[in-house]
Amino acid sequence: MKRWILTLLIINLVIQFNTKSSGSTNENILKIRSIADITTLDPAFIVSTPESIILDAIHRKLITYMPGNYWVWEMDAAKSISQIDDTHIEFSLKQGIFFTNGFGEMTAEDVKYSFERFIDPSLKSDLAGGWGALDHVFITGKYSGIIVLKTPFMPLWSSTLPGVTGHILSKKASTSINKNRLHLQQAYSGPYYLKEWKPKERIILVRNENYIGFNGLKADFDQIHVFPISDDRTAEMAFETGDLDFTCVSLASYVRYLQKLPKNSTIGYFPSLYSYHLGQNQNNDLLKDIRVRQAIQIAVNIPEIIQESYLGLALPATGIVPYGIIGYRPTSHIPLIGDTKKAKELLRSAGFPNGISVTLDCQNKTVDIKTAQIIQKTLIQAGIKVKINLYDVETFRQLGKKSSGNNRNQLQLFLSRWSADPDPNYTLQYFSSMYIGSNNWEHFANKAYDQMVIQGVKELDSIKRSKLYIKMQDMLEDSGSFRFITNETTPLVYRNKIIPGLRPDGIPLLHYFKKNRE
Question: Which string of DSSP letters, residue by residue, matches 75-119?
């Protein structure tokens, strides 16, 4: 039955490729897979990596991440940029950067608007923390200005400016569409512009002929077609039949491709910045007792998950922050191997000698399903019965938010996956109490932690800053609401006819993708 359903998915996908890709086979089109569809292209409200990938292709930033093995940036829209002192950053724009559809030339007014809107309380952006230290942008000329901070802000250069919060929008276009939220606007300045978005089907990006990049280079492809495909096997079969040029793959297929690659292809394997953990909602009546949370936490057997869900190709996580990033935590307070005996003792002391029943919510993805099943199998040995609830991506994203009403308090266990930038503040800030009801599904609330979030972005000493973020992860784990699993990996495959531009964690930078002319 499952094979029949998968066959139907492939047939439908091939029909989409064959009937919806415009033009002849000679057209210069890059076809890639996205793990999920976009929901918005407003930088202040994006919720996933697939959205940031598209934004990077259609908008410009003062500085942008470079492809390669190291987290470095280069100037994009900025002609020059420098830090005058701890709280002032001076910049000047390249002249002649134009927005599409007649919205004029990019100026310092656009930079001021784009950055200051994040801190507008009426906007209620979940990403406001990325500009939490911003006071204002002072305009010194048509193309120049000074970013004025209220306090020193260490993530500015590693995350805020080159990351999702650094995109420069057209003030004229944005304010004429919607004051509070931009869904899809028509003013683009990047190497590509958005021509079409058919939800859950495809996104078409077209080369922006007005774009001039580094050393006068233009985008290398006439079009980029992005297909949202959540199922790894469906995407892999599309690649194998020649309908995709680039896709991330499952670890099982990575191992298979090591033995025999599809024709004219290259495989890659990258460390990931993702954080994957088992979360517990401590606002749920059953889970308010820390002993219950600790029982669940300590019973989970991490090595079995790594072996079964990740085929032994990922490393166990010691915290939210991955290896190689400031704030990496060398060890966990909890043994990796599950201790069901200790879990039973904790439940007994909490008044549950006969065990408990809980729900575990996760996305309907292969790794999540397998991980949930392993947790279910392990916890039953501790007297904890687990019912697994599977959701599509869009539905799952809403489970712990205020918009779901009182149902969010019924949330108990869930598998949480976080994307990140190469600064620990990017993810750790979202577990402060101010994000309860949006990103903080665990309802973790600790005043000392909240103060550390503020302190961490101001700390100029990298050693002290690292120790601070390690302590914050200690606090998360000690709450009983977090069982860190892995920071995952990014295996992928692509056609030899292209040279992909990739971040150190394997995330595609579409504006750096090139044709292989060898």
Answer: ESSEEEEEEEETTEEEEEEPTT-B-STT--B--HHHHHHHHHGGG
Of 57, 59, 143, 146, which Cα lies nearest the Cα of 106? 143
CA distances from 179 to 42, 120, 172, 175, 228 (A): 12, 11, 11, 5, 29
Token pair of 296 as six digits: 């669940």
Q: Is 248 exposed, middle or buried (0-12, 13-18, 19+ CB in 10 A)?
A: buried
CA atoms within 13 A on the CB side of 400: 27
511 class by beta-carbon count within 10 Å (0-12 exposed, 13-18 middle, 19+ buried): buried
> Which residues, including other chains, have CB under 8 Å from residue 313's CB and lie 6 or more apart?
251, 254, 255, 489, 491
- List pLDDT tens digits, range 191-229: 999 999 999 999 999 999 999 876 677 899 999 999 999
Element (H, E) at 366: helix 366-379
Closest CA to 309 of 236, 247, 270, 365: 365
| Nearest of 356, 439, 448, 340 to residue 399 by alpha carbon | 439
pLDDT at 18 (0 to 100): 46
Is residue 468 within 8 A of residue 455, CB to CB? The reply is yes
Amino acid (one-letter) located at 402: K
pLDDT of res. 126: 87
The type of residue at 254 is Y
Residue 156 to residue 81: CA distance in whole angstroms:
12
499 close to 221: Cβ distance less than 8 angstroms: no
**What's 368-380 look like in SS3?**
HHHHHHHHHHHHH
Q: Which of 132, 135, 153, 155 is nearest to 145 (CA)?
A: 135
CB under 8 Å, gap of 24 or more: what pairs does 92-96 form?
Answer: 92/141, 92/143, 92/144, 93/62, 93/143, 93/144, 94/143, 95/143, 96/212
Go through the domains of the chain in sequence order and give each one's CATH number: 27-37+190-267+493-518 (3.40.190.10), 60-184 (3.90.76.10), 275-487 (3.10.105.10)
3-state secondary structure 128-143: HHHHCCEEEEEEEECC
Q: Cα separation of 376 and 155, whole Å?
A: 38
Give the separation between CA 455 and CA 110, rounded to whole angstroms.
Answer: 30
- 1-27 per-position pLDDT tens digit: 333 333 334 434 443 454 444 433 457
DSSP 480: T
Q: Which residue type, as a one-letter code, is found at position 442?
A: E
Please tell me whether residue 277 adopts helix, strand or coil conformation.
strand
Q: In what order do the strands lie in the sheet with 413-418?
A: 384-391, 356-363, 413-418, 275-280, 482-486
Q: How far apart are CA 196 and CA 23, in angstroms?
A: 15
pLDDT of residue 447: 97
